[in-house]
Amino acid sequence: MYDLVIRNGKLVTEKGVIDADLAVLGGKIANIVPRSQAPGTDAVSIGDSAEKIDAEGKYVLPGGVDVHTHLDMPLRDGLKSADDFVTGTIAAAIGGTTTVVDYACQEPQGSLKEALNVWKGKAKGACVDYGMHMTIARVDDETLSEMADMVSQGVTSFKIYLVYDMRLNDEEIYTVLERSAHLGTLVTVHCENYGVIRYRTKKLLAEGKADPKYHAISRPDRCEGEAVNRVLQIAAMADMAPVYIVHNTCREGVKYIEEARSMGQPVFAETCPQYLLLDDSKYELPGFEGAKYVMSPPLRSKADQEYLWQAIKNGTIKVIATDHCPFTFEEKKIGLHNFSAIPNGGTGIEERIALMYSEGRKQGLSYTDLSKLTATNPAKLFGMYPRKGTIRIGSDADLVLYDADRKTTITHDILHENVDYTCYEGVTVDGYPAMTILRGKVIAKDRAFVGEMGKGQFIRRDLP
Would you say the pTM of this structure is higher than 0.85? Predict the structure, then answer.
């Protein structure tokens, strides 16, 4: 007797799409039976007490895994990202994401352990499962020692910045990467050249160029490309430490990743829906509207979009995450007369699955390709596979019923992110998540959250 049976769906597995029935027991996928094995009958034997879901006409996807979120993230002067672990994970669930991996931030004078405890406290209300990356803001003997302690607690990836107040210099980058290589962990990296950005920003502001569009001008594509190349060179010298370059936006950065991968260097690349679907023309919107799209790195050209799609198709880019870090439009007005003061970040935790399955299909990607980009690959790279990110017997029953015929126009009014706009206002998608299941329990249905608050579990991740 099973707890739940999903019948008549098209299961999106790693090997392809199959017409099959699926059974769940104890929160795990317990049985998968192709309907061709029992034509004209129920493929799975169902007990009277089992919950039954008819997925006729729908694709059954592995629950989305978003490995780049910033929930309840402090910025400055009491300002923090608009979504916390409650509102953000409710939005994630409705949008078809069942696991997030957020960035816990070490304080400049604090320890990694303290940061992890703070972020676990923030996550107590989470409505989907969650893991943590650990952002390193200080490189010393204590931090390097604590990196091993993090692994023992299921935190097997770290983040370093080349920009902002928590940026590391080249010596510190090398030190962290060498330590990571020894531990077998993965370091994620935000790549932009701090010195160039600082100089260009001061120059633009001195010239009276303060509008949102100058944010992008202050940090051009070569600024990103130089930093990517530098990190890859340092990683190669640091015992070939594996690195994961977050939110790639342009050819200038990705070309170095392609070159490094062709030479056998262990480097992995991520991009986000905003860089695939939105371009730098958004910064030319009238008034202060362009501030909604102020994020770092900034939006790039349509030619860069095309290059990113090709990098996805050839396997250079393995993951599509969100970098979900929203601030309200009112909060962005802090930078009304100074683009450098606009809080950086955009929306996407709820929109990702619909956007990518819609646009990805137009780009010629299969359902299996898209499930790998949004679930399987991130689960593998960050030590959650096969528990997460796949439809197979023994995996968590994290599933999404996706209605490919449900054409939907995305507007702020239909979303649940705790912010007063969406970057994707007016975008029409071919298909939308109809139901989300977390460990065998329905938590979202027809664009509404129907689960229990705070039922998300901390995922102790293995070494990748």
Answer: yes
